[in-house]
């Protein structure tokens, strides 16, 4: 699979960041920024980032005759691979998706019950509390769980998010801001 563009080095994940590590280069294009985001949300898995980038480009090309929504396409291509997009009240899907994402690094989230698929537990569970629990446990292993929304899009009916290395938090926030995405740590609602 080819590197997304000839203009940037896939091994230099933050070549577009300014000298203080937080300034986004005004010349950085949307595709280059999206590539950086995919590298961040696929820690140590450039192949997965490349596959998702190709799928995103295809989705954008398919929607070229209508006005494409780059962030909606992103949400679709990363879902259950390096991100999640679940209904806010579907606690079962939230647990399942977070477990799937954590398993990429052989991690297991302790949901505080023997059977997190128990209907009584799921009915009583709150999505925000589940996100906070997962966030705190992933932090212990060097990762950060993030939730995100396109800037200005109040979507209280869904939880969308991804996981990065803990030390990539400032880089993620800078790239997300440049892409007009609001990000929050998973323990902040």
Report on this structure:
The chain has 189 residues and is α+β, with helices and mostly antiparallel strands. The protein has one domain. The chain is 42% helix and 14% strand. It is built from 7 helices and 4 strands. A 4-stranded antiparallel β-sheet has the order 1-3-2-4, sandwiched between helices. Helix 4 runs parallel beside helix 6. The termini are far apart.
Mean pLDDT: 86
Shape: globular
Number of helices: 7
- Lateral strand order in the biggest sheet: 1-3-2-4
Largest sheet: 4 strands, antiparallel
Count the domains: 1
Sheet/helix structural class: alpha+beta
**SSE string, helices as H and strands as E:** HHHEHHHEEHE
Rg computed from alpha carbons, rounded to a whole number of angstroms: 17 Å
Oligomer: single chain
How many angstroms does the end-to-end distance come to? 38 Å
The unreliable regions are 6-27
Tally the beta strands.
4
Instruction: Give the DSSP E fraction (strand runs of 2 or more residues).
Output: 5-15%
Bin the helical content.
Answer: 40-55%
């Amino acid at each position: 699979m080819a590197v997304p563009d000839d203009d940037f080095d896939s091994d230099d994940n933050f070549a577009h960041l300014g000298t203080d590590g937080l300034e986004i280069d005004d010349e950085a294009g949307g595709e280059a920024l999206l590539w950086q985001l995919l590298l961040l949300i696929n820690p140590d898995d450039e192949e997965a980032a490349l596959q998702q980038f190709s799928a995103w480009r295809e989705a954008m090309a398919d929607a070229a005759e209508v006005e494409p929504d780059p962030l909606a396409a992103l949400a679709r291509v990363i879902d259950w691979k390096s991100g999640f997009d679940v209904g806010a009240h579907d606690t079962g899907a939230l647990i399942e998706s977070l477990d799937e994402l954590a398993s990429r690094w052989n991690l297991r989230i302790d949901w505080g019950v023997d059977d997190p698929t128990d209907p009584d537990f799921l009915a009583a569970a709150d999505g925000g509390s589940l996100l906070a629990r997962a966030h705190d446990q992933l932090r212990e292993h060097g990762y950060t769980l993030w939730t995100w929304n396109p800037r200005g899009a109040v979507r209280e009916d869904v939880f969308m998010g991804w996981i990065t290395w803990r030390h990539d938090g400032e880089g993620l926030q800078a790239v997300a801001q440049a892409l007009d995405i609001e990000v929050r740590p998973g323990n902040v609602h």
